[in-house]
Design goal:
The complex is a heterodimer of chains A (686) and B (87). Chain A is of the alpha+beta class. Chain A contains 30 helices and 20 strands. Chain A folds into four domains: 2-220, 4-Layer Sandwich (Glutamine Phosphoribosylpyrophosphate, subunit 1, domain 1); 233-369 and 487-556, HUPs (Rossmann fold); 382-477, no CATH class; 568-640, no CATH class. Chain B has 87 residues and is mostly helical.
């Protein structure tokens, strides 16, 4: 697991190896073990490495000199052993044991279709010097990040936006439309980001650059072709367990030890149990605990640890911790967040790192694939109730939706009916399931300045979402439509990014996700919705498939979404904080809010005062506070005072001579470009 | 009655509109106007109980009592009359 960066000059002029090296510095946390820079005339590739597979032979950028190919790659191709064997029968000869080299040979053999052979999580860029093109790709569901931009005759790409911003030619401005999308969907919809002119390659897409033209092509899409033929439930369950076991087995491929995250919920327990089935060694598990009982799941974690016999370590996250590390968290998320939930995961990856681990298996994706989230339940109940609005029984189900939220328990049925009221025209809306969440989130926009609100209003973000939907969407069952929306918006944009890759990689930890194995995802898409949510029992088929490997108490427990304290992380419970962190006071001060120009100073001041009094207890207040503070931190750290780490951080790292040397090499220590004798740069236009 | 309405408008302005002038009539539904979300009801209840010294029972937590200035004023009047009588 690693970080990648690169530059292509459209006019054919030489890329500066020094700039590529500087672009690596802000990615050093992703790959602290070694780095490599390769410049070949108008193309420069950079790589920082977290060595996991083929520790000695996997240096990058890696080359396949006979075919004029170079690659810089972040991620894992888990089925590289099988692919390599397949390619060897076709005459390919390998120099290393790494999955990186398999990418080069697979591209050589299958062209752009190579990615369809991969089972993994990746972001990579291949320079194909013979065809004078670049080929970039991102995994199917968006586990690994890949950003790019075009500025002043250059194409630049990187694992994180901050690497692009190292080049002073790349402007650093907030994109009001990206922010408008985030203040609706919780993240921008790729390719859009919150930064003007910076794009993210959407999951499941390839990007090619040839003759000065960028082209994005989708190579994979989740399709809910539900298999409605009669089949015993147990057969579905057996097939699922077999697939999940294989998904976990592949994800244990590593030359360094592999641990697991354990929340105490069903998904992480299944994940840990699967790992235990695949290996004889004792599993190391890592958990977050909270000092507040509202969020803490220690008791469940202990049950799992005792039942599975894992070697366990936990870190307690306090609200003060969250308040303190929040600026660093936002430096890594690179976009505003509406909850503090990523912050504890930042501490968790530090615990894993300090424990000497670089790889963890984790349970994300199960809720999206098997229908675990409350939003699916809520949509089902709303639809069920809307069919018979006068039914008292159907309306009663509304009260069962959010039993874990103390503020919701006290609600009367009359209010539930009012909140979940279904407008008849919404029933046919493709976004039916998500409209309540998105409309509630959109209320944050009322804090924005009049100008920003006007800019946001000019652009219809719902139209952006509708434009993403494939033609077949309308034919899918409503439950699957909700799943698709969740899997293509929140999963890549927030769960796998702000709460996933960014928090884990902040401390050089690679997350691996058995539930996001594409075979599991494709299987789940075929499962009839009635087996995902049976009545109101969520993830039914997953529970059935895993009932013999999961402790009974965990299988039976009520689902509790992962949450962390929000407003009170900055202002104390009930506004009791003796000292509010200084950066909070500064960034939320009326003067600063006015200077930055995104929010209305008066409205923010009232909200802050409300939080100080301890009255910010509602969803909206908490979301607004975290959203505004994190936006102000994004502006501070990326727009106003962008100060990336100096490339001296790389000095401490070893620079390895990449395997299969090709073309002119940058000697990064002396930063001179040595002349090539083997090949000559082609020059000319790109 | 006007006093109650004025005080309620002030509370809503301060607490739910963050200082922005309310642009709704006394009969407009807070839910329809998007002014109060599901947790906002509890803030409103806490405010009413704190300010007027009565307790709101679970079966009184209904939009007919709480969902517009007009409904609230009627509700407060009824509740405080009840207090006066019992006192």
């Amino acid at each position: 697991m690693c970080g990648i960066a690169g530059i292509v000059h459209f006019d054919g002029s030489d890329v500066s190896g020094r700039l590529v090296r500087r672009m690596l510095a802000p990615l050093a946390h992703r790959g602290p073990d070694e780095y490599g820079v390769h410049v070949d005339g108008p193309v420069g590739l950079g790589h920082v490495r977290l060595s996991i597979i083929d520790l000695a032979g996997g240096q990058q950028p890696m080359h396949f000199p006979e075919r004029g190919l170079s690659v810089t790659f972040n991620g894992e191709i888990f089925n590289y052993i099988e692919l390599r064997a397949e390619l060897e029968t076709k005459g390919h000869r390998f120099r290393t044991r790494s999955d990186t080299e398999v990418i080069l040979h697979a591209y050589d053999e299958y062209g752009d279709d190579c990615v369809e052979h991969f089972n993994g999580q990746w972001a990579f860029a291949i320079h194909d010097r013979r065809r004078r093109r670049m080929f970039l790709s991102r995994d199917r569901l968006g586990v690994r990040p890949l950003f790019f931009t075009v500025a002043k005759g250059k194409f630049l790409f990187a694992s994180e936006v901050k690497s692009l911003f190292v080049d002073p030619d790349v402007p650093r401005e907030i994109d009001p439309i990206g922010l408008g999308q985030l203040f609706t969907f919780w993240s921008p919809l790729a390719p859009r980001t919150v930064f003007e002119g910076i794009s993210e390659l959407p999951p499941g897409c390839n990007l090619t650059l040839k003759d000065g033209r960028l082209r994005t092509r989708r190579y994979w899409q989740l399709r809910y072709d539900v298999d409605e033929r009669w089949r015993p439930e147990q057969e579905w369950a057996d097939e699922l367990l077999e697939l999940l076991t294989d998904a976990a087995r592949l994800r244990l491929r590593s030359d360094v030890p592999v641990g697991a995250y354990l929340s105490g919920g069903l998904d992480s327990t299944v994940n840990a149990a699967l790992v235990q089935q695949c290996t004889s060694a004792a599993l190391r598990t890592f958990s977050i605990t909270f000092d507040s009982p509202e969020f803490d799941e220690t008791a469940y974690q202990r049950q799992v640890v005792d039942a599975l016999g894992t070697e366990h370590q936990a870190i307690c996250c306090t609200r003060q911790d969250i308040g303190q590390i929040f600026p660093e968290v936002i430096w890594h998320t690179e976009q505003p967040i509406l909850r503090t939930a990523p912050a504890p995961l930042f501490l968790l990856s530090e615990l894993v790192h300090d424990g000497g681990y670089k790889v963890v298996l984790t349970g994300e994706g199960a809720d999206e694939m098997f229908g675990g989230y409350d939003i699916f339940k809520e949509a089902k109940v709303r639809r069920f109730w809307a069919a018979e609005p006068e039914s008292a029984f159907r309306a009663l189900l509304l009260g069962r939706l959010y039993p874990y939220l103390p503020n919701m328990r006290a609600q009367s049925l009359a209010y539930h009916k009012a909140f979940f009221h279904v407008r008849s025209e919404d029933l046919d809306n493709p976004m039916f399931s998500h409209l309540p969440r998105w409309e509630m989130t959109s209320r944050l926009k009322t804090f924005c300045t009049a100008e920003l609100q006007a800019a946001m209003r000019e652009h219809d973000v719902y139209a952006d979402c509708l434009a993403m939907l494939p033609a077949e969407f309308a034919a899918w069952p409503p439950f699957c439509q909700s799943q698709f929306l969740e899997t293509t918006t929140l999963l890549p944009g927030y769960i796998l990014s702000s709460q996933g890759d960014r928090m884990a990689m902040a401390h050089g930890v690679e997350g691996r996700f058995p539930f996001l194995d594409h075979r599991v995802a494709e299987f789940a898409a075929r499962v009839p919705p009635r087996l995902k949510m049976k009545g109101l029992c969520e993830k039914y088929i997953l529970k059935r498939a895993t009932r013999h490997i999961v402790p009974e108490a965990v299988a039976r427990r009520t689902k509790q979404p992962y949450r962390a304290p929000d407003a009170e992380s900055f202002f104390g419970p009930g506004g009791s904080a003796s000292s509010v962190p200084e950066y909070v006071e500064t960034l939320l001060s009326p003067r600063r809010i006015e200077e930055d120009g995104l929010f209305q100073p008066e409205a923010v001041e009232r909200l802050v005062e409300k939080a100080r009094r301890g009255n910010a207890i509602g969803f909206k207040d908490n979301m607004a506070l975290v959203g505004i503070l994190s936006t102000q931190l994004v502006v501070e750290q990326f727009v106003r005072n962008f100060t990336p780490p100096s490339d001296r951080v790389l000095d401490a790292m070893e620079q390895k001579q990449p395997v299969g040397v090709l073309g002119p090499m940058v000697d990064a220590d002396s930063l001179t470009i040595s002349p090539s004798t083997a090949t000559s740069p082609e020059g000319g236009q790109w | 009655m006007t006093d109650h309405a004025q005080a309620l408008r002030e509370f809503i302005r301060e607490n739910f509109l963050y200082g922005k002038e309310p642009s709704f009539s006394d009969d407009d539904s807070f839910l329809d106007m998007g002014i109060i979300d599901s947790t906002g009801v509890l803030e409103l209840v806490a405010h009413l109980e704190g300010r007027h010294g009565f307790t709101i029972e679970d079966d009184e937590l209904v939009p007919e009592n709480l969902d517009s200035i007009h409904n609230l004023v009627k509700f407060i009047k009824r509740k405080t009359q009840h207090l006066d009588v019992s006192a």
